[in-house]
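Message: Study each token:
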Amino acid sequence: MNSSIPRLISILALAFTTFATATTRHVPSEYGSIQSAIHAAVPGDTIQVAAGTYAEQLVINKPLTLLGPQAGVSGHAAGRGADPSAEAVITYPAINFSSPSSRSLLYLGTSVTGITVDGFTFRDVEVFPSGWYGYLVFASNVQDLVIRNNRFFGGQTAINAFYTTSQTGFASGMVVERNFLDGGPFVNCSVGRGIAIQGTAATVQDNVL
């Protein structure tokens, strides 16, 4: 008997179990906040977020798919954003920028493989404390990160992804596509960046800045 057959069966059984147990969690009908759904989720889950305004800073440290009501619709598609009530808007609840994670609307990492963020609007506050600046999305050491079909307003850096400050390795598989980025009050600031990627192999295409 071929000794590889039992191993193949075990791999297929594991893949089927992982797929079968993946769950879609809904906000706010099942969870009162996006972060509470993230806490409850297991790797591989999908979190479906309905239209509304969510004043919360999010942290994802496991493989998840985060879908807004505009998932699949380009961030710069004709008519996108014309009806704010059709968007899931994520904004700061308060100003507290003592670290990258506390300066971020969405903090991703560390050392996670497989996060997708699709169909949201990220909006900053108008004024940051002196000497600080906000990241709308900050990714640290994330492999296979997909950021698509989102709208970003303000933030001195809308999307910031890096692998490590020591430059001893790199991340790969990042896709940034079909997003709309508007720098707002920070468009001419000294550190204003739409997309900043360091130590990460990425495909960046079809974005409007």
Remarks:
- The chain is about 10% helix and 40% strand.
